[in-house]
Amino acid sequence: MPPLRRHQLLCLNALGWADLAGQVEAGLPDTVLQLWRSRRLPLVLCRQPLAGPHARLCAGLPLPTRWARRRCAVQVPREGIAYFAEFPTTLQVLPGVPVAHRDSLVRLSQQLAMAGLRAQVYGSFGWQALTGLAYVREGSDLDLWVGVAHAAEADLASRCLQQCDAAGETGLRLDGELVFPHGDAVSWREWLRFRAGGSRSLLVKALHGARLCHEVPQPEPELCCA
C-alpha cells in the first residue's frame, strides 16, 4: 500500500463499516452512516498522532449542508480499508463551479498538465463532486492541492494558481497547498511570498503535525500502511 498522506481518501470494506457503526455515539449520526455505507462513499485521512505501524487511523467525514456542515472524526482499523482514492481533479468539479470561472480552471488544468502536474480539489467543491450532496455555499473557496517534486515545480504551480485566481471575477477564491514528496505541504500563497522574500519561514503541514521551515521543506520519515 502507498505511504500515508493528508488528503487521501479511504474506502472501507465490510469490516471497516462494521467498526464505524460502533462509533455512532461519538457524534456520527446513524442516518449519515447508512447513507455513506449504502453509496460506498469515502472518508478522508487526517493528521495522525505518532504511533506504531498498526495503530488505528484518524479519519474525517465532513458532513454536507443538510447536517450543518459538521465535521465528524473517527478512527479506522487498517484492515478495514479496502483501498485508497484521490479527490477529483479541477476538470471533474467543473459542473459545480460558477460558469464565469470555468474557462480559467480549464486553462489552469492545461497549464499544469503541460508540466506533468495536476490539481486535486478537496474541501466543499471536492466533497460535493464526490457525493452529489450539497456542500458549496456562497463564499466557499475552491480548495486544491498540487503534488510537486521540487522547488522549481512548486514555483511553476504557484504561478499558474496565481494567474487563475487573478483571472476569476466571480468572487471564487482559490486556496490550497503544494504537496512535496512524502507529504509535506505548504500554502501556495505562502510559497509565493516566501520565494519573493516577503517572509523568512514557511508553515509546513505534514502527516504528524506542523512545523516552521526556513528553506525548501525536507521530508518527514515515511509512514507506510501495513
TrEMBL record:
It comes from Sphaerotilus microaerophilus. NCBIfam families: malonate_mdcG. InterPro entries: Holo-ACP_synthase, MdcG_C, MdcG_N. It holds the Pfam family MdcG_N. Keywords: Nucleotidyltransferase, Transferase. This is Phosphoribosyl-dephospho-CoA transferase. The keyword Acetylation does not apply. Residues 95-214 form the Phosphoribosyl-dephospho-CoA transferase MdcG C-terminal domain. GO terms for molecular function: transferase activity. Residues 5-86 form the Phosphoribosyl-dephospho-CoA transferase MdcG N-terminal domain.
